[in-house]
Amino acid sequence: MYLERYHSETGSRIARITGEDFDIFRRFLVQLLGHMGVKGVWTVMQQPKLETERLVLRPFTLDDAPHVQRLAGDRDIASTTGDIPYPYEDGVAEDWIRSHRERFRSGEAVNYAIVIRGNNTLIGAIGLLINQRHETAEMGYWIGKPYWSNGYCTEAARALLEYGFRDLGLNRLYANYFIRNPASGRVLEKIGMSYEGCLRQHMKKWGVFEDVNVYSILRSEYKGIKAD
Q1: pTM for this one?
Q2: What is the distance between the alpha carbons of residues 107 and 170, in angstroms, rounded to a whole number?
Q3: What gap in Å lies between CA 95 and CA 178, rounded to an integer?
Q4: pLDDT digit string (tens) for 29-73?
Q5: Angle at Cα 92 formed by Cα 88 and Cα 97, nearest 5°?
Q6: Among the four 25, 120, 125, 216, which has the fewest Cβ within 10 Å?
Q7: Helix 152-166 crosses helix 219-227 at what angle (to 10 degrees)?
Q8: What is the predicted pLDDT for the residue at 11?
Q9: What angle do CA 34, 96, 33 make, to 5 degrees?
């Protein structure tokens, strides 16, 4: 990522900010807009597509709604997530997708459709719930059952982790999962997060209190991993 400044009359480039300087500038911009009463840099940004070797993370469209309902409507998906309903009623996916743009513009959240490069097959979702004041975000994700055990979730999570630190200037990213879903914990370990602890009976799912494991990574730790 970089920022360039051009002369207003000649059109020639007079400045270019890259690397660490760009990160510093971005964080300064977030703080400046905050002091001005603007909710972060998201209000002047477009949500970008993120690309990995096998995947594209892109904003959802309403055309994705039937696929979201079909995949997220699987009982095994709903069982391991805190907020996905079961059964997954008609209209729920559309309402969820319609909320994304405003939540991104307000700096509350960013949500991505996970699709396979080349054929644009939607296989899941991943996103961040953002706390601008504390420069933290909670990561959440799900992968449709037909696409389990292919490493897709880890690949998408790595891309979103980089986006959170590099583009959004966050200081801490964290995630949690029901302890009966250890596969989710392995994803978090693979992207460099560290175990923080267990929140006992922290969430109630379908009438059962669930223990939740918490993992996190700091910006300084992530930069160290990238440097290795």
Answers
A1: 0.82
A2: 12
A3: 26
A4: 655 655 555 544 555 568 999 999 999 999 999 999 999 999 999
A5: 130
A6: 120
A7: 110
A8: 52
A9: 10
Terminal Cα distance for the chain, rounded: 20
Task: Give the three-class secondary structure for 180.
Answer: coil
- Per residue in 133-167, pLDDT (tens digit) is 999 999 999 999 999 999 999 999 999 999 999 99
Predicted confidence at residue 2, as pLDDT, reads 46
95/99 Cα distance (integer angstroms):
6
The Cα 133–Cα 49 span in angstroms is 25
Instruction: Please enumerate in sequence order all residues whose Cβ is within 8 A of that of 228, keeping only pairs 6 or more positions apart, or say none.
Output: none
Q: Do the Cβ atoms of 86 and 73 come closer than 8 Å?
A: yes
* Residue 143: how many other CB atoms lie within 10 Å: 23
Q: What share of the chain is helix, strand, coil (3-state, %, to 5)?
A: 40, 30, 30
Closest Cα partner for 113 from 52, 46, 51, 57?
Answer: 57
How many residues make up the chain in this entry?
228
Q: Where do the DSSP E strands lie in 132-193?
A: 136-143, 172-178
